[in-house]
Predict the 3D structure of the following.
Amino acid sequence: MKARRYIPPPLGESGQRVLLLVLAELCLLNVADFALTWYGMWLGFATESNGVMDFFFRQSDVAAAVFKLGIVTVGAVALWLLRRYRAALLAGVLLAGVFAAVVVYQALWILSL
Amino acid sequence: MDAAPLTVKLCLLGFGNVARGFCALLAKQERALADEHGLRVVVTGAGTRRGSLIAAEGMAPAAVLAAAPKEAPLPEPPRPAAELLAASGADVLVELTVMEEDFAPVATGHIEAAFDLGMDVVTANKGPIAWNWDRIAAKATAAGRRIRFESTVMDGLPVFSLLEFTLADCRLLGFEAIFNSTTNFIIDAMARGEGFDTALRHAQDEGFAEADPSHDIDGWDAACKAAALANVAMGAGITPADVDKQSLCDVPLERIKAAYAAGKRLRLAGRPDPRPRPGYRARHRSPARAARRGVARRGPAHRPHGRRRRRGDRRPGAADRLRRLRRPAAPVPDDLRPTLPHDGGPSAPPGPAPGASGPLAAPLPGPPAAPLPTRVVDAAPANPWRRAILLALLVLAVGSALGAVGFAAEQRLFVWKPDVKALPGGGWRITGSAGLRPLAPALAGDRLAWSQAGYTCLMELASGDTKVIGAASRGTDLWPPALDTRSAAWLESDKNGVDPAHLWVYDIGRGRRVAHRAGAAAEAPALSDPFLAWLDDQPDGHREVTALDVETGRRSALATGDGLSSPVIAGDDAVGWLLQPTGDAAPTVVVRDLGTGTETAIMLASAGSGLTVGDIQMAGHLVLWTQRSSRTTRIVAYDLESRQTTTVADGAVETPATDGEVVVWAQPDGTSPHGCVVMMRGLGGGPPSVAARPAAWPAGLAVGGGRLAWVINDGTWTYLDVMELPS
């Protein structure tokens, strides 16, 4: 007998609350990431290894800020619009976790300079 | 010709308000039942504790109502239930007796007796469903009979039919429901300011509450309904005693009013709880894990009465639909809504004592009631964001921990740091092996800078804190650093001399470094705050001495032309460079005061003297160099202020260094165990004295801030020592 594919139930209200907070957290972490990256570059000890961001940093700091904050904000809004899917919560949690790790890593690295 | 209607014979056990209302409804719908469904419903038996009625040929419901008007008992004497059921010859038992809280033995006995007599059963009594569902379902299956109990939960709302028909093949994962309306009425009345007793009286006046309201108030009514729903729809296999309960009496008035003031309502709610307890565990994984994975459990591994479900078990016949309702599902994870603390004490069921009997009684043994905690759940929780906030913080914490662990691992495994140890007599030793030799120390103030294996390092001599402030990129050479009290500078140039070099300036106070472009042939810079000067090639092939104000970034050419040679030197507001004319002309150092623009030319050796000059350096207002002949080496100093030349030392001297106040140098010493000694001499006058006795001939000396540094190679290790100069 063919096994039925498991279809997870849609994300509930409490899950959507978590997603909202995680996305807000993601946006704040993105700001922190940009600030720490900019500060590390200003200190002269860091270089932007992301080619796209490096391109925008070469244009100006404002262009880099607008692009970085904009792209993550758009992504967060997209995830919020897809909030009925559990994958949106998973993606938000993973992104926020990765951003938190990157921000803490950068902060510790700058403190060690 | 129409077919004759199918006659359905009913036996009514219990003849109170519900039974009377049921008969009235049947009487009202008699024509519709016959015309639309081909049914003729008659009553062949009815019984209560006070009377009974047998009509083997069948009575119309209206006739039954006429035979037993309101408040009057049934016309015949009471009979035992089994006798009444057998005598009635009915097709369907309508079980409408009052619910017993003590395991429902009487009503369960009625139902099982009806099954034994081949009857189907309809009941509005939730007791048997809540307490003995497994037994009843098994009995129905064995007898091939049907049982209906839609009105046991949520009165007229089709809960079980919804699950059985509308949501057929769906799995019930959980529910949360407000089962009891009496408590709603009382809570709302209390929220409006009424006392508990007044609210209860009003509830009784309105017909919500019974004369004995403890069944509702103490949560037993809701517990029975929750257990019935969980048993039938989720296969929970529990009894009302297994349900956490809390009496409304234990809920503080302040809490009710606070919820009301916040625009919310406090409600007694029931739901499945995945908390593990003995005898109710998943077979393969914990309930929490199963819920997390969104995977339904195969079923509870345990049934309250000791029977495990086995693969291949089947309940045929009329119970098939019910079995579909009983398909177990994963327990719903606790949503962490705020709950009241439970009283923790044993809770015995209220109402009549076990074994209460009457004319219809058929007592059954039941399992002992388990003392369980109680619970009341807010219908509108006080802070539904708390769980979300906690989870978001958990994500933040986990990510942060990963970042911190990654940083620590990288620092430990992949980041090079100089090996610095304190010397027993004061000072520091930086050690390196073959590929990591420390080189070219520079001292200024309380700091030491040096280069080591492509890294430029800076050390706070007071604390021993060391930073790597520069690392050579692949394919570049790192030149020794220059140091003053505010900055360190070094040159990173292309190994092939093709790409532009970078002059790095590290601002010690701000911890910031800035790279400045220089020509591919740039040579080691000299630093005298705020000026950085170096010798570079121009595109036209000429050489140029360039000065850079590191604060403003402004560049200026100090000298251009042929004959310019390294090194470039710097002191107080002055930059100097070597002018090495062709032919027999004397080598000259030209020093320019960057404040006044005046230049001073210092002839390092007479023209045609045959002396070789070297070790040219500058500190403060002093220019120092060596003059070598075939017989001796002389250390010569020129004071830019007094414009006097002084011979500091003469003999087999090597590697002089000065900070503008003291000159140090190395020379052979027969009395020293290692054959050499470092001498020092103050420029204010006085004879030379021994500064220190190194373990081997020092490769490089530096002096500054009252300290002496040298690099020693003992054949195995190369180390850089820094120590206090003797006073």
Summary: The radius of gyration of chain A is 18 Å. Chain A has a mean pLDDT of 91. DSSP finds four helices and no strands in chain A.
